Amino acid sequence: MKLFVILSRVPYPLEKGDKLRAFNQIKELSKKNQIILLALNDSKLDPKALDELKKYCVAISVIPFSRLNAFTNLVRTFFSAKPFQVGYFYMSKAQRKVDELIKKHQPDHIYCQLIRTTEYVKKYSNIPKTLDYMDVFSKGMERRKKTDSFYMKPFLNMEHRRLLKYEHDIFSYFQNKTIISEQDRDLIPHPDKQQIVVIPNGVDTDYFKATPFDKEFELLFNGNMNYPPNVESVEYLVNKVMPLIWKKLPAARLLISGASPSKRVLALKSERVEVSGWVDDIRYNFAISKVLVAPMQISIGLQNKLLEAMAMQIPCVTSSLANNAVGAIHNQQIMVADTPEQYAAAILELLENEAKAKQIAYNGYLFVIKNFNWQSTTAQLEKLMKNTRV
Question: Which of 36, 88, 112, 381 is the most buried (most CB within 10 A)?
Fold first, then answer.
């Protein structure tokens, strides 16, 4: 099968969830299919990106756009009915390239990741198409309305309304729709949302595996540290949870790890809180930490940080919202908490009871091995595509 994949970002390096998902799906799909990739790019291209992607793609097109392009896109979108999440990524030069590639390669199937890329292929009713909603942008925008500055409220209200309409309307343009979790599927504003197929992420368990290192930190928070849900969660951890931990364990240290830490994240640094920024091999930060804490305050998406830590046999503490997407059993495979006091109690139990920590870690590892691997999740996606007709 010739598969035309359209992404809003170049899927390398793997510092963001959409890149991780796209890269591993492409890697698995390439074993039996020809991948033609088109990726938009609004940042500096990693020098290793094309070499990595050439291992799995027969053709690669990267469409760069500058800050001027982005500004023009946003201004144009303001006067349309489309969400900024969609308009920001739409360019006529990219449309011409999409049309050229489709004419040249005659793909058997088109795969769009996120609603950001869907405008490019709406007109191709003669080719089977799959949309990976992945996350529910409208719900994320709704939650941002509650936390962002008052002067952002009019813009956020506008974007929320547009996203609701677009997520509904785009549904009918694609034969297949996928998403990352059941709870995300239930948030899609469409009466037939049960038709959306849940395709969870996986973990490369050959890469993420238990590694013996001396533990330098009691706690770890990991993720893209410029992403608002991660920023809000780590602020909650430092300001609400850690004071309760420090009452019992004054020397406990927290490592905040991940790309592009914002000013708000950098402001959390102290003698007991370290902010590492981007690291070439995230496994090292996992390995030198005793417990991963992910006190996520919103329920969108699947937290890869949890799956990766569990694969490395690091015990995890997270919110019930985040665990709803994972589906691990509280107090057996993971620890679940929703208040500062509950987080502190769960963390202290794992830090002070080594046997309990090891049991949670091992059970979590077995759970991930069984339920989250890229081979099986992508095989489900591939079967869906191959059985699609227009």
Answer: 112
